[in-house]
Amino acid sequence: MNALTINDATSRIKDDLSQTPNVADACYRVLDWVCTQPEGARSHVSLQRLLKASAVDDLSELAPVIRYLTGARVPLFNVVYEFVEGDDVERVDSDALYEAKHTGEFCHPLTGEVVPDYESKIVVYFAVSDAARSIGGAGR
Amino acid sequence: MATKIELSNYLDGLRQRQINFRDLTAAFRENDMPTAVGWSKLLPKFDSLPADADLDTYVEVLKSLYRNHVLYSERAVVVFQFQTEELAPLVHGIDSWVETDSVFAESFPFAVQEETLKTLSSDPVYTRIVASKSGENGRTMICCSKRYVRSREFIDYSEFPEAVLKALAAYDEIVGVRSRFVQAFDTLNFRVSEDRIVLTIDLCGNLSLQDVGRAIIVHVDMLQDRLASNGFKGDVGELRVNFFPKIASLYATADGVVEHIGHVTTSGSNKSERMRAKDKDLRKEPYHQEGLKAINGGTDLFSISKQWDAGGYYIGIEIPGTHKQAGDPSAKVQVAVIDGCRNGTDFRKVLNYLVQ
User: Sign of the CA dihedral A14, A16, A22, A25?
Assistant: First the structure.
């Protein structure tokens, strides 16, 4: 994967989001925020943190920002899904969740047994992608 | 030629033992066998195989997975260290310890039904040695036991009557505690060249440390009786290796990844720090590093979980001390948990980290 630089990200946001300036501004703010985070502190970014960083009012305004910043043009973040039951935390890949959405059946990643009400046990957060590693991260 | 019944017995056995489903499907993929995301989708694929299909390879793979799970899956470990050349004369004739006419021997290598287990004695706990085998690390005996386990299960309450739903509305999760009997496959490995006996307790259910302690006592008592009849005069329980000093050395040794530690700081707090992902090292985490720096490294460890990459999966050790042992020069932890091993090579590697 090609490395994403701050200049790439800024110019693509400008080109791609000119019709939606609010989304573009929110993306710039998230980008600025990522630049200020130390490298070791960018692997678990919650929705709440992104709401704050983007300074948007609610999740409906945050959704297009996340879609863009996890997309192919500016892959700033990877989306991470975890299955959390009690103290146990297991990574889940998006294909398994996609299949579960369609079949209505999600299987526990370790036991292989069907999990009732699985959606309440899925946690989503974001991690700065490898492609964006060169962006910020110096602990400024 | 292998049959579908044989295939089904091994699949049922692996499911009952709650084999890690990722390990199972990884092995199936390596051997071009059917895979799926869960048991409910996997079993129909095997059911639909033609009756005359050549199942030999499939059964060989399943047999190996089952055997490795029985011997090396998540285990609590106790090591008894004897004096130099003390063990050799004590193990004379131990093959006679195997009882071929027990309830467990009849169904071995599979577990007996829970209904049968219920009928077996709980006091003393029904325990029988069912098999003995020589390998590169000496003789290993499989010791089956009736074990009482309690498991926490999450309850789907969405279809409960409305009044119940209302009463439970304030809770995010409803948990039930289920008590049941399971058949444990513990092992006793007699390493004469090292003057050690390694006891492993099969964590086939969610055992608490107290449950593990009870299971260990059953074997210690049995060993005491049997070794005494071969001339042993000492107390087997006193020979248990103390793993507590290993906590600090495992943390200090740069290899592997530290997933969890428990420690008590000089600033007066009990800390339990755990990485969410098994492949990330707590020792490199900024919050952990800066915290230690702020107190000049002044902390006493009392528990640790450490993992090593075994080639795409992780094998590891947990030493489960308690916070009241932190900083106590005479603290003892005589049981450790070895987890993630897929075979004997993995298990021996992790065991070496504990005893060397």
Answer: negative
Is the Cβ of B21 closer than 8 Å to some Cβ of chain A?
yes
Spatial contact of A77 and A129, defined as CB atoms under 8 Å apart? yes
CB contact under 8 A, A111 and B21: yes
Place of tokens 């110019």: A11
pTM: 0.87
* CB-CB under 8 Å, B285 with A107: no
| Beta-carbon-side half-sphere exposure of residue B106 (alpha carbons within 13 Å) | 6
Cβ neighbours, 10 Å, residue B19? 21
Q: Which residues of A touch B22 (CB under 8 A)?
A: 109-110
Asked if residue A4 lies in contact with residue A74, where contact means CB atoms within 8 angstroms, the answer is yes
Written as one string, the DSSP assignment of B35-64 is --SSHHHHHHHHHTS-TT---HHHHHHHHH
**Could you tell me the end-to-end alpha-carbon distance of chain A, in angstroms, rounded to an integer?**
26
Tell me the chain A residues in contact with residue B286 when contact means C-beta distances shorter than 8 Å: 38, 40-41
Rounded to an integer, the average pLDDT of B247-253 is: 97
Whether the upstream peptide bond of residue B124 has omega within 30° of 0, thus cis, is yes
Interface size between A and B, measured as CB pairs under 8 A: 54
Who contacts A92 (Cβ-Cβ below 8 Å, separation ≥6)? Answer: A81, A82, A83, A109, A122
Instruction: Please compute the mean of the pLDDT values over residues B79-87 and round it to a whole number.
Output: 95
How far apart, in whole angstroms, are the C-alpha atoms of residue A21 and residue A33? 18
- pLDDT for B251: 98
Task: Report CB contact under 8 Å: B37, A99.
Answer: yes
pLDDT value for A88:
84
Tens of pLDDT, residues A47-103: 999 999 999 999 999 999 999 999 999 999 999 999 998 878 999 999 999 999 999
**Residues contacting residue A120 through CB under 8 Å, at least 6 positions apart:** B172, B173
- The answer to whether the Cβ–Cβ distance between A40 and B286 falls below 8 Å is yes
User: Average pLDDT for residues B2-25, to the nearest whole number?
Assistant: 92
Q: B277 in contact with A at a CB cutoff of 8 Å?
A: yes
Q: What is the DSSP letter of B327?
A: T
Mean pLDDT for chain B overall: 91
| Burial of residue B113 (number of CB atoms within 10 Å: 0-12, 13-18, 19+) | exposed
Q: Counting beta carbons within 10 angstroms of the beta carbon of residue A28, is it exposed (0 to 12), middle (13 to 18) or buried (19 or more)?
A: middle
Residues 6+ apart with CB under 8 A from A80: A44, A91, A124, A125, A126, A127
The reply to whether residue A112 touches residue B42, judged by beta carbons under 8 angstroms, is: yes
Give the count of beta carbons closer than 10 Å to the beta carbon of residue B47. Answer: 11
Rg of chain A on CA atoms, in Å: 17
Element (H, E) at B142: strand B138-154
